[in-house]
Write a structure and sequence with these properties.
Blueprint: H1 2-69, H2 74-132, H3 135-144, H4 159-162
Protein name: ARFP2 protein
Coiled coil: 80-111
InterPro entries: AH/BAR_dom_sf, AH_dom, Arfaptin_fam
């Protein structure tokens, strides 16, 4: 009877620590996933938009230069005004995207290092505490990183405990 009770307590503790570790691992995976699939993806999309804007800007600049060197009749002047307007519009778009890319790359570099450092520290501390059997350190690691666990079924006792 005493041995079964001890075994049951050990199993409960293993289960609780396993759920705590799982919460830490899920938080780690979620944070890295956000970094890779959202932050980096957003930066890459902005870079692609910047490349497209650069091509459009160059094309309209070339058109404007060609029209500027041509004859100055009434039709050419209206085409020149339209080309100037298109050129300015695409130049503004290009310069805005260039500034956006610079900012996003700077933030990405800073955040990448911070997020990776924080997440690897969390992962290392949680794994170390779990395999050392140190429940307090494992829970302290989660508190340190502000991770709130919602353990399923924590509100109600197991069917064995109800007996």
């Amino acid at each position: 009877q005493e041995e079964f009770g001890y075994n049951a307590e050990t199993q409960k503790l293993l289960c609780k620590n396993g759920e705590t570790l799982l919460g830490a691992v899920n938080f780690f995976v979620s944070s890295i996933n956000t970094l890779v699939n959202k932050t980096m993806e957003d930066t890459l999309m902005t870079v692609k938009q910047y490349e497209t804007a650069r091509l459009e800007y160059d094309a309209y600049r070339t058109d404007l230069e060609e029209l500027s060197m041509g004859p100055r009749d009434a039709g050419a002047v209206s085409r020149l005004d339209a080309a100037q307007s298109q050129f300015q519009s695409h130049k503004d778009k290009y310069e805005k995207l260039r500034a956006d890319v610079a900012i996003k790359l700077k933030f990405l570099e800073e955040n990448k290092i911070k997020v990776m450092h924080k997440q690897l520290l969390l992962f290392h501390n949680a794994i170390s505490a779990y395999f050392a059997g140190n429940q307090q350190q494992l829970e302290q690691t989660l508190k340190q990183f502000n991770i709130k666990l919602k353990t399923p079924g924590a509100e109600k006792p197991s069917w064995l405990e109800e007996q």
